[in-house]
Amino acid sequence: MTAFVSHPAGMMRGMVGCTSCGALAGAPLCDRCRRLLGPGRRFLTPDGLLVAAAFAHHGTGRVLVHRLKYQALVTAAEVLAAGMVAELPPGATALVPVPRARGRRWRYGIDPARWLAQAVGRQTGLPVITALDAGWWWPRHAARGDAARSRVAFRPRARADPGYVLIDDVATSGATLDAAVAALSGAVHLGLVATAPSSMRRVSRPSGALPSREVV
Ligand SMILES: [Zn+2]
Question: Structure pTM?
């Protein structure tokens, strides 16, 4: 039931029908998968960055992230980005993708945060800025303790602006986003991800102005 179409980028693929389950009668998502797309939440990283997740990292949200990250299915980026757009603050001026470690980019043939940022950019008109450079490899889950966290590192490539929004696919602990903020000298105040686990402690704040770091 799953049909693939070639993408101009070669390894990248798009899917005909439902992006999650492949059912032909439902694009980009069939009714069943849409029902299994849980809402995201806002939470703070260990270092206090406010992060908005478009969807919960289970059910359809989890499948879509996996299709993007491990199968290079770029259609999934468009579907996820549609939910991320709703979480952008009005003061956002640019999107900064958190780059995937080079080894994983090479292995899976895709840098998912860049595809998400570009999809959000297409839907909003916001520019995508390459402000971070990734190292070659780092622990898959950056939440295994301080020793592992300290190995997640980025190099800045451009000056950040407080209106810049960090973009990533999934935040499991927020440690990778914290490393990205550190590389940008703390100039970024909001992270926007496609999914996050429902276990993240929720924070609420009024929509509108860009958030500060004093949220509790
Ligand atoms: Zn489906």
Answer: 0.83
Q: Please give the average pLDDT of every successive group of 10 residues along the chain, which has 216 residues.
A: 40 70 90 96 94 96 97 96 94 96 91 98 97 75 49 84 96 92 92 92 54 34
Read off the tokens for 157.
Answer: 């490539």
**Ligand 1 centroid, distance to 36 Cα (angstroms):** 9
CATH code for the part of the protein at 38-196? 3.40.50
CA of 125 to the centre of ligand 1 (A): 29
pLDDT tens digits for range 159-171? 889 999 999 999 9
Q: Distance between CA atoms of 160 and 141, rounded to whole angstroms?
A: 26
CA distances in angstroms from 74 to 12, 43, 135, 142, listed in the order given: 6, 27, 23, 25
Cβ-contact 57, 200 below 8 angstroms: no
Rounded CA-CA distance 68/80 in Å is 10
The pLDDT tens digits of the residues spanning 171-202 come to: 988 999 999 999 999 899 999 999 999 887 77
Dist CA 144 CA 35 (whole Å): 33
Residue type, 71: Q
β-strand 50-56 against 94-97: which pairing, if any? unpaired
Task: Report the distance separating Cα 169 and Cα 81, nearest Å.
Answer: 10
Distance (Å) from CA 178 to ligand 1 centroid: 34
